[in-house]
Amino acid sequence: MSKYKSIIDLLHKNGISIQAGIIFGLDTDTKDVFKETLDACNELGIDGVTASILTPLPGTPIYEQMKNEGRLISTDWTYYNGKTRVAFKPKNMTAEELYEGYMWFRREFYSISSILKRLSISKTNLLHNFIINLGYRLSI
Length: 140
Hints:
The protein has helices at 2-13, 33-44, 61-68, 95-109, 112-122, 126-139, and strands at 19-24, 48-53.
């Protein structure tokens, strides 16, 4: 993580905010991934995140893999938005645990204490990032 820290610090020093894209539900993910990811984001001063649930879209190799492994929960398109439902059976947790962990991460990442901690480390575009974080907080 020290390599990430030095790169992120350099970007922040040059006025560049970090908006991380995070996907939960990879085959290597366990229930610990949510807290570990939150802790890393807070320690690194990540300005914002776009968090999603892994979504095996039809026509992709991951869809075919999950289909062949019998891990698809449904072919109903309402499961395939990466935000409100889990479309597959994760390897190291239940679909419910994945969804609950994803929602926990979002609530915690956009909690006032996390926002203040991250922005006090980042010190980049403070007003803008604070407003954006509050907007995400309100959308949860």
